[in-house]
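hey m, so remember when u said the tokens were messed up on ur end? i reran from scratch. heres the input so u can diff it against urs
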Amino acid sequence: MPKVIINDEEFEANEGEGLLNIARRNGVHIGFACNGNGLCTTCECKVLEGKERLSSYNEVENAWLPVSRKEAGYRLGCQTFVVPAGAGTPPLKVITRAELVRRQFLEGLGLAKFSDSPSTLGDFVGTILKTTLDHVIGAPTGMANGLTRLGIVTFLFPFNDMNGFLNDTGQVLNKQLGTNFGTLTPDSIPENTNSEEKPDSTGGWFFRRRKAAAQASAESTPPPSGSVAAPAAEKTAPRPASSEGNEKVNISPLGKRRREK
């Protein structure tokens, strides 16, 4: 089984598997704003070694990437696939554009060091400007290709698998932030039958889920040791209504009851 190194982490891959798919299922820091439909370029990666282990540039990459980016080794993760390679071919090693920019930013601020030649803030700004310019230039042909290839519906709303998109997004966030939010699927959230606001497939339920999880955690947490639970309020049975009509009851000085009609 081929080995792929993405952002200095080694993963197993299947022949014919896309770089974006490998990265997403392993929570790698990579973008996929268009859900892998070749419309956004946020999954762009830079090949450092083993380019022979990848498929050739296809029409989508040719539409988006200018010659200068191809020569620099950039590929679109959603359009690049692992292929068999001959003996002696170096292992495939890539870094995602998202991770490259993050590292340059941290090194420029002196908060981290990822190589013997740390990047500067100038490198960070230069990467941002060059990337933006290249993709602005490629946007007309890239968008035209996407519209022709996908059709108007998928072009406007490429999230045909919202559960998978949200799961992978949560996995990437968990790995990068060191958190554990669990899976981010609408199906995993119980409906609140007392509210008109229902879970939907747009992700608007995310913060409601966090609130519900916090409330459930608070309810399941036992009270601190030594604390005394407040006694339950004693319920008083309702006094039965009189069955004697409109009778008046007087009490004599001797404590005897007299009824008057």
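this time it looks ok to me. Residues 185-210 have pLDDT under 50 and may be disordered. if urs says something different then somethings off w ur setup not the seq
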